[in-house]
Every structure is written in C-alpha cells, then in structure tokens.
Design a protein that fits this description.
The complex is a heterodimer.
Chain A (H helix, E strand, L loop, with lengths): L1 H21 L19 E8 L2 E6 L10 E7 L2 E9 L7 E11 L1 E6 L6 E6 L18 E2 L12 E4 L3 H14 L5 H5 L3 E7 L5 E6 L15 E9 L6 E9 L2 E8 L1 H4 L2 E5 L4 E6 L10 E13 L10 E7 L18 E2 L1 E5 L4 E5 L1 H8 L7 E6 L8 E5 L10 E10 L1
Antiparallel strand pairs in A: 1-24, 2-16, 3-4, 3-11, 4-10, 4-14, 5-9, 5-12, 6-11, 7-8, 7-10, 12-13, 15-23, 16-22, 17-21, 17-24, 18-19, 18-22, 20-21
Chain B lengths: L1 H16 L15 E2 L5 H4 L28 E16 L2 E20 L2 E9 L1 E13 L2 E25 L2 E22 L7 E21 L4 E8 L2 E13 L2 E8 L5 E3 L2 E10 L2 E10 L13 E2 L2 E10 L14 E10 L2 E2 L7 E13 L4 E12 L8 E15 L5 H4 L1
Antiparallel strand pairs in B: 1-5, 2-3, 2-21, 3-4, 4-6, 5-6, 6-7, 7-8, 8-9, 8-10, 9-13, 10-11, 10-12, 13-14, 14-16, 15-18, 16-17, 17-19, 19-20, 20-21
Chain lengths: ~400, ~400
C-alpha cells in the first residue's frame, strides 16, 4: 500500500514536471537588459571626402541610336553631329527651285542665350557604325549659319544650290550601269553641324530616332526640296515638294583631357566613366571587426543636362591613375546594382554603396577606387556632370559610412 | 519501480535536451549564476551539507561525506523553477529547468569509496530585446547568452582515524558559454550586424575535503577547492544580414580562472532533529578577469542555516512519520557586479521532504525554494523565484563480491 502510494505520487509528480518542461515560459522584451548594458557592437559614423577622382573618355564609337543630336561644348567635352539624307525619288525631268534642311531644336544650356551652330555640307559617303575621324572629314561648303534658340520655329538651313549638284550626281549614278546599287543607295547628302564660336554652350536637336510628333516637341531632321517637275504624260510643268527624312545621323564627341578632370562625367554611351577614390584608413580595422550597416556616396550635380539618367552600377577596382582601363575586362565588369536617391532641391544624388564599402573595409578590394557607370550606357547618348575634388570641399564626392565595430 | 525509473529517465532526458529558457538576467554577469546545491537534500536545508552527514546520498561537492554501508551509491537530480523578473521596463516571467548533478560511488574497502560526480558550477541563460534609435533609424538590439561551467569530481573518500574522513579529488572543469548580440534595423536598406562568441573551456584542478563526525552529536566538515585555470577554444562569428562575414576559431592566450573556494559547515544532533550552519567563501577578487567580460569580480560569500527532522517510525504509526522533513534559509552573493558596482545577493527560504523506498536503502529527496535576488535600483533587476529540486539516491550491491553480499 505504501509502495503503491509512493509510486503513484512520484509518477504524478514527474509527469507534472514533464508537462512543465514542455510548456516553459519564454520571456521577451527589454526586461533585464539594463543588467548587461555592455554593448558588444558599437555603431560609428564617418564621413570621408574623396581623395582623387577622374573621368575617362575614349574615342567614341558611332552612336546612332540617340534621340538627341548634341552640338557644342560643355564641361570640356565637344560634340558635333552628322546628318545624312538619301536621295528622294525623282521625276522624269526636274529642276530645283530651293531647298532647306529642318532640324527641331530641343533646347540648350550654356553661358550665352544665343548659341550658334555652323553647318557644312559634305560630299561624304559613310555607312552606319563607321568610325569617324573628325579631322579626316573633307572640307565642305559652308552654308548659312544656323540657330537662334529664341526662334519659335525649327532651325532651318538653306543649302541650295548644292542640293542640285547632289541630286544631279545621284541621277547620273542611276544611269551608270557600272555602279552597284549599294553605292547608289549610300550616296547621301551629309550635313556636318559644328559648334559656333561660343564656348560652354550645348545645343540639342532631335535626331532621326526621335519621335516624329511636332505636338510633343519631337521632329526628325528633314530635307525639303522645292522642285519644278515636268509631267511625263503631257509635258506640263508643275511645282512639287520633295520631303526626305534623315536616313542616318551621328553625333561625335571630343574631350579636353585637362578639362575633363575638373568634372566627373558619366553617360554618353560607353564613352564616359567616372572614378573616385576614398581613403578608408580612418576606420580602424586592425583592432576591430567591422560590419557596414550602410554606406552612402553623395555627389553634387553640376549641369542640368537632359535626360536625367542616373548611375545604376558601381565597380570597385584597383586603379593606379596611369593604368588604361579596358572596360570590357570581365573582372571590371562586375557591377553592384545600387539604390539611388535624387534630392532635386539640393541637386544631390545619394548612392547606397554598402556592399562596395564593406569590401573595401575588409580588404577585398585594393585601394578604394570606385567607378560609376551610366545606367543607359548601352543605349543612348546622355551626359551628367558632377563636381569633382577640384571644386569646393562641400561639393566634392563624399562617402558616409555607418558601421558597427566589434573588438578583436 | 520500473515505471518510476522509466518516467524519471524520460523527464531528465527531456530536461537535458530541452533548452532552458531565460532563467535570470543576473546570469549574464561573469560566467553565470553560481549553483550552490550539493544535492537535493541540502537544497531543502538552506544549502547546508558539510555539517550534515549522509550515509545514503552522495554529496556532489564533498567526497569526505561519502560514508555508510558498503553498497554502490548512485544518485542524480534536477530542478525546475519559475521566475518573475521586474525592472524599469516592467515585468516578465520565465521558467528554468536543468540537471543538478549525477554521481556514483563504489565501495573499495572498509568504509572507503571511489567515485565521480558531475554538477553545475555556474549557469547562464538570458535573453532580451530593446528598441533603439540611431542615425539609421529605429532598430532592435537583441542579446542572448547560454551556458556555464560544470565540475567533475573524481574522488577517493576514506576514513583516516576515528570519526574523521578525508576526501581527495581531481576536479576537471568543463564549460561552454555562447553569447550573441545583434542589431537589426527597421529600414530594410540598412544591413543588420551581429556577433556570436562561443567559448569552450577545459581545465583541471583539485579538491580537498574532510569531515569529523561525532555520532548523535557534532559534525564539522570542510572543503577546499584549489584555483583552476581553464583554457579556451573560441569561435567568433561576425555576421551581417544573416550572412557570416567573419568566422574564426582560435585559442586565445587568456584563460578563464576559477578562484579559491573554501566552505566550512557545522552540525548538531538535538534529539531526532539535526541543525547545521555553513559558510562558503569564493575569492573572486584574485581572479584575472577575461578581456571579453566587462563585469568586475569580487569575493562572494554564502551563509546558510538548515534543519532536518526524521521522526521515528514504528508499525501502526501514521504514514507521514516515514518521511524526513527539512527547512532552511540561506543568502548568497553574486561574484560579478554590473554597471552599478553593486553586488547582487540572493536570499531564499527552503523546505524539503525525503521519501524512502527500497526498504530504506534508497531515497527520493524533494526540495522547494522561494528566493529573491537583486534590487531594481541597485542591480537593475529584481528576481523572485519559486523552484523545486529533486534527487534520487539509490544504493545497490553492485561491484560487491558474492562472499560479501552473503
């Protein structure tokens, strides 16, 4: 009886203990936290101004997919444009009364309110994707000086009588059976647009890739030829207008190496990349383990150049300053997608670079150079310039690193 | 009996593998909270054991106390408790459970035993989360720690002259302490940061105990633990957003030191009642604190008084006279002080009961403790605990020759 009593009691007691274990209460919240106020991680913030920077540009390839034709000089970069028209279908007999080229003006920035563009007609046969050597372009006939942005209508260039010569040449080529069709097709009238005498002035026209909608401001380059044609049936003369949309165009870039370093530029297809170096030695990684919570690079916009394409990728790499960077190198093409924030009121662009900063601080990337690429570099011509280390300290690129450190 | 053993084994197995949730914020200090109980019997008597001889149970901390009939003794125990914590943020509750020790002693001669015991020396488990605000916005900081030291006694207990016993032990120390800290931000664009430091210790020391027992009169016991230095194997993991950024194992040159530990107890029979007093001193002031800890160490003192009553049972007596009843009171200092510089103290009332079985050759001890530790202002936390400790003390004629059995 005693034994049974004891066994029952003990069994009940132990089973109760078992359920107690399974239903253990777990505390949550801050109760007790003041006992162990020794914080293992210490959050620090450091601001690092850029040490060095540069923008590098390369001989530009033909970039024929832009909706813009830029002509002018800004921030040490000079742009020129070529526009080509193929010969229109011609009647049996014809004579040219007048002709002009129409370019739709999109706007411009610069130090003068009356930017000018020089127009030269070239007798030049060129194919799309040719590499154009600007200095090798033959002299053409200088035509009327274009361009006053205060005009309400599109800019017009009168190029008669050279259009006549060109059309006659095409006509004669058609009757020459020894010429190939390709040669005939590619024999285009080329207009070469050059910057006027004003420095630091950039004019923007619509290219042949632009939307052909005058209500929205887009209008492709057009050649208008007013002719008098003879009707082949009855021999009567009547006026006619030939309208030719540009078949091809390019705009070309040159850069002044000295001037480029005063600006940090990205964009212009693959032509421009900017490199900035930050010295992260102020962060003690000898005595502490470092975790980067967030690193933000702030850059200050210099020019309001349309369109507003913002950098989408960053490349950390080793750069001695003298090394020519091959951008096709797969190692350098490792990119980090970044989050950007534009503070339009202050013209600041913030780029969150936490991954890159973490690599720097952990010693994975050598000497703190950061490369910025335009998010549109495979597509289009656009340019954004930023203040560099040559400018005021408050405007030079700055890296703000928030990190947590743990004693080693 | 078999059922009892099965249930007990199951309960203890679960106790060992079930994570013991946060038991004490004060266990975050130092190497954890000191665990003073020699066994479940002393847990019911204000942690008094040296002045209270036990011919059946094993004193996990004093091999000199192993005496009695030439039978193999085997004992183990566990405890569970419920705690209420209160500080400036409010209150919270937690439960704790764990193994309090296991031991075995084998007779090797006339009243001489060899054996081993394993018991906790310190225990740590804490967890909390606080909200914070930084330049990067709101964040949650969480801290969690678990582990502690365990001590093993491989001991010889022998009588040296009339009424005096001596215990000599090798005292290996093993331990494991894991501490985690993490800060997570509400803004998902901000990466979290955290560190986990896991230390594994091992060291070896010695222990000396002695007991003078005048039957039905006085008993005086003493135990001395020498300082022990434990080597560390440390793994540090730094992580960000759940990914390990740094993961390194090393053996740092610093060591975890345990101090001199001296305990003295005195007991007296008064009729069928026994009373005792015990004092323990730990010299933590002399310990070189590891650099990873930011708390300060200071000497710690434990004082306890206990009482035990074993009413004589005769046939036809009420059943309760079979049991043995206990009570006590003790106070114990924490050896680590927090940022306030105050040394937290535990005060507890204890009670207990023993239930003999197996014709008196074995015994089950159950103890209850109601304790208070810490002060909301001085220690930044006040903890109230109610807990139960149980122990099984079993004896068998294992390892005894057939001639001796007969």
């Amino acid at each position: 009886m005693y034994k049974q009593t004891v066994n029952i009691f003990l069994s009940t007691f132990l089973i109760s203990v078992l359920f107690f274990f399974l239903g253990c209460a777990e505390p949550d919240g801050p109760v007790g936290s003041q006992v162990g106020q020794n914080r293992d991680g210490e959050v620090m913030t450091v601001e690092i101004y850029a040490d060095e920077d540069t923008s590098l540009a390369f001989p530009p390839p033909n970039t024929s997919r832009s909706i813009h034709l830029y002509v002018g000089s800004i921030d040490g970069v000079t742009s020129r444009a070529l526009v080509k028209f193929k010969c229109p279908a011609l009647p049996f007999e014809w004579s040219v009364d007048s002709s002009y080229v129409e370019l739709a003006y999109l706007g411009g920035i610069g130090e003068t309110i009356n930017p000018t563009v020089g127009v030269t007609q070239l007798s030049h046969i060129w194919m799309e994707l040719d590499t154009i050597d600007i200095d090798a372009l033959p002299d053409g006939e200088e035509l009327s000086v274009f361009a006053n942005p205060s005009r309400e209508d599109s800019g017009k260039v009168r190029i008669y009588p050279s259009v006549v010569d060109w059309m006659r040449m095409i006509d004669s080529l058609r009757s020459d059976t020894t010429l190939s069709d390709t040669a005939i097709i590619d024999s285009g009238l080329t207009i070469f647009l050059e910057p006027g005498p004003s420095n630091e002035c950039l004019v923007d026209f619509c290219s042949r890739s632009a939307y052909d909608d005058t209500t929205t401001g887009g209008s492709k380059p057009r050649l208008f030829v007013y002719i008098t044609a003879r009707d082949s049936a009855n021999g009567e003369l009547h006026p006619d207008t030939l309208e030719v949309v540009a078949s091809d165009d390019l705009f070309l870039l040159e850069y002044d190496t000295t001037a480029v370093n005063d600006n940090l530029t990205i964009g212009s297809g693959v032509s421009y990349r900017t490199f900035v170096r930050f010295d992260c030695d102020t962060i003690d990684t000898t005595n502490y383990h470092i975790v980067v919570n967030q690193a933000t690079m702030t850059i200050h916009r210099k020019r309001t150049v349309e369109p507003w394409y913002i950098t989408r990728s960053l490349i950390p790499f080793t750069f001695t300053g003298d090394t020519v960077i091959d951008f096709r190198d797969t190692e350098l093409m490792k990119r980090f997608n970044v989050i950007t924030a534009v503070d339009t009121s202050l013209n600041d662009i913030g780029i969150i670079v936490s991954n890159v900063a973490a690599d720097w601080l952990q010693g994975k990337d050598a000497n703190g150079w950061l490369g910025m690429l335009s998010g549109t570099e495979d597509i289009n011509i656009d340019r954004i310039s930023f203040h560099s280390t040559s400018g005021p300290v408050e405007l030079c690129p700055k890296l703000t690193v928030h990190y947590t450190r743990f004693p080693r | 009996m078999i059922r009892l053993i099965i249930i007990t084994t199951l309960v203890l197995a679960i106790a060992c593998i079930t994570p013991a949730w946060c038991d004490s914020a004060l266990s975050s200090l130092g190497y954890g909270l000191p665990q003073p109980a020699a066994n479940a019997r002393s847990a019911g008597m204000g942690m008094v054991s040296l002045g209270m001889p036990d011919t059946l149970g094993l004193n996990l901390l004093s091999p000199a106390s192993w005496s009695g009939s030439a039978t193999t003794r085997f004992g183990f125990g566990g405890n569970f408790s419920s705690m209420y914590l209160e500080d400036v943020f409010g209150g919270d509750a937690s439960d704790q459970a764990g193994l309090t020790g296991i031991g075995m002693a084998i007779p090797i001669g006339k009243d001489r035993f060899v054996g081993f015991t394993v018991s906790p020396y310190t225990r740590m488990q804490y967890e909390w989360e606080v909200r914070s605000s930084t330049d990067l916005g709101a964040s949650t900081i969480g801290q969690h720690g678990i582990g502690g030291f365990s001590q093993i006694m491989a001991a010889l207990s022998t009588p040296v002259w009339d009424g005096v016993r001596l215990g000599l032990a090798v005292r290996p120390i093993i331990g494991k302490v894991d501490r985690h800290w993490r800060e997570k931000y509400d803004d998902t664009a901000v990466k979290s940061a955290g560190v986990s430091v896991s230390d594994r210790f091992q060291g070896i020391g010695w222990a000396l105990s002695c007991q003078w027992n005048q039957p039905e009169a006085w008993t005086v016991g003493m135990s001395l633990f020498g300082p022990t230095s434990a080597g560390i194997e440390r793994q540090t993991v730094i992580f960000s957003d759940g990914y390990a950024q740094y993961d390194q194992k090393e053996e740092p040159s610093e060591r975890y030191d345990l101090p001199w530990d001296f305990t003295i107890g005195i007991g007296r029979w008064i009729g069928r009642h026994r009373t005792g007093f015990e004092a323990q001193w730990q010299g933590w002031d002399g310990v070189e604190k590891p650099a990873v800890l930011t708390d300060d160490f200071t000497d710690a003192l434990r004082l306890g008084v206990g009482w035990e009553w074993a009413p004589e049972y005769r046939p036809l007596d009420p059943l309760w006279r079979i049991f043995t009843f206990r009570g006590g009171l003790y106070t114990q200092d924490h050896y680590a002080v927090n940022v306030t510089g105050h040394q937290a103290r535990r005060i507890a009332l204890t009670g207990g009961i023993s239930i003999p079985y197996y014709t008196g050759k074995s015994r089950i001890d159950i103890a209850i403790e109601i304790g208070w530790m810490g002060d909301k202002d001085l220690d930044k936390i006040a903890e109230r605990t109610i807990g139960f400790t149980f122990g099984f003390n079993h004896s068998e004629k294992w390892f005894v020759g057939r001639r001796k059995r007969n």
